[in-house]
Amino acid sequence: MRILVAGGAGYIGSNMTAMLAAAGQEPIVFDNLSKGHRQGVGQVTFVEGDLCDFDLLVRTLKQHSVEAVMHFAALIEVAESVQQPLRYYRNNVSSTQNLLSAMEAAGVEKFVFSSSAAVYGMPTEIPISEDCPLRPINPYGQTKLAVEQMCHFQSKTGKLRYASLRYFNAAGASADGKLGEDHRPESHLIPLIIQAALGKRKSVSIYGTDYDTPDGTCIRDYIHIEDLCGAHLLALERLDSEPELIYNLGTGRGYSVRQVIDTVRRVSGKDFKVVEAERRTGDAAVLTADATKAREELGWAPQFGELETIVATAWKWHSSHPDGYTD
């Protein structure tokens, strides 16, 4: 199958592209390289372009006889979305509407969307199931929900079959050590801690040590990048029989900030400075997924469930790419 991977030069998109190629599919990467890295794309068809360019999108979809689209080209920083909400609506909502319109014009129906647990906001239950109320508390989460709603109504026309996959904390690197996480600036916990272990950062901060958790720090659900991408392949296959799919993607197991710090110390053999800071507004004490639906309906079974395994793959990549990608 010929699959357009929007944002295929980014962290998740590049791993997805590699998995698609390994599975015998034909990925076509579409990326403006504003956040992604050309070095992460590999030897597949690459189109440098922006999702705002309707004509280029239609031309690309038709020229390559694209049969499905996977969409990873979103801005993802919660704090930044609060400071620049219009930028997030433009990129995450308007650009996606443009992509869906191009798909309609080119007759492409299948769409796998990279959504987020941020659509739940401050959850009313733990673990979080797909039936939990959708109450995002920041522009980032609201833009993800807006796209989900747009997909829902478009699917009712019979012109779109879509899967919305609500990620928890994507983490780790490809098992072969070739593809890793290189955000600039970095905001995700595991790479931040690893940067401290590598001496690339003076310290790592813990934001809040008085939460109602066993060690007082926030607990999050970390899902390995290859387990995440594997769920996308299964969801794409299920779109043959179902027009609308929504799944949480997480392991259902949570780890605290202190546990992650201790795991990086153990895996790396390095020590580093840890600074205790005040809580950040909007941080919930515990966020873990109920991914029962994905396991039962997709037959999805995460292979990298242990935090130490996830961190080990991340350490392998970062220690061999201390400055990230070179492009």
Features:
327 residues; alpha/beta; Rossmann fold; UDP-galactose 4-epimerase, domain 1; 4-stranded mixed β-sheet; 10 helices; 38% helix
* Number of discrete helical segments: 10
Uncertain segments: none
CATH architecture of the largest domain: 3-Layer(aba) Sandwich
Annotated CATH homologous superfamily of the largest domain:
NAD(P)-binding Rossmann-like Domain
Overall pLDDT = 97
Can you tell me the CATH topology of the largest domain? Rossmann fold
Radius of gyration of CA atoms, rounded to a whole number: 19 Å
Number of strands: 13
Write down the secondary-structure element order. EHEEHEHHEHEEHEEHEEHEEHH
* Proportion of residues in β-strands: 15-25%
Helix share bin: 25-40%
Amino-to-carboxy terminus distance: 29 Å
Shape: globular
**Adjacency order of strands in the biggest sheet:** 3-2-1-4-5-6-10
Largest sheet at a glance? 7 strands, parallel
Please report the first level of CATH classification, the CATH class of the largest domain: Alpha Beta
Number of domains: 2
* Structural class designation: alpha/beta
Short summary of the structure?
This protein has helices spanning 11-22, 54-63, 78-83, 85-106, 139-155, 189-197, 225-238, 257-268, 292-298, 307-320; strands at residues 2-6, 26-31, 45-48, 68-71, 110-116, 161-167, 169-171, 203-207, 219-224, 244-249, 254-256, 273-277, 286-287.
Explained architecture:
- This protein has two domains: 2-171 and 223-249, NAD(P)-binding Rossmann-like Domain (Rossmann fold, 3-Layer(aba) Sandwich); 189-221 and 252-320, Alpha-Beta Complex (UDP-galactose 4-epimerase, domain 1), CATH 3.90.25.
- 38% of the residues lie in helices and 19% in strands.
- It contains ten helices and 13 strands.
- α1 links the parallel β1 (2-6) and β2.
- α2 packs parallel to α4, α6 packs across α8 (257-268) and α8 (257-268) crosses α10 (307-320).
- The protein starts with a strand and ends in a 7-residue tail after the last helix.
